Amino acid sequence: MIGSITGEIGEIYYSEESVANIVGISTMECYGVVGMASKNAKDGFWELIRGESLSRGVKIRSKNNELLIELYIMVEYGTKISVIANNIIQRIKYNVENYIGLKVSTITVNVQGVRI
Q: I want to staple 20 with a disulfide (CB 3.0 to 4.6 A). Which of 55, 67, 76, 109 is the partner?
């Protein structure tokens, strides 16, 4: 469980996997993002992840019922990385806070590579 919300009738608990999927989908909607990156443990290489398991490029921690999100992405060649990162941060913060109701305190975007 990464977070919970208490309502009138009961509580809602969110798993890390479900929040990571929402973050991954929100990231892939941004212009210039080619895919998420996942480190191949045995080789030490970064592997491009497209649509199947976007949560593998996302790390989420919870501190004082606020989320700390860390992303590993690959971007398209010829795009401005700072603009892409800003768009990702704004979209994730909006989607997570409005759809799930959990507060996001920090989002870190790690660009692991550039694809042509």
A: 55
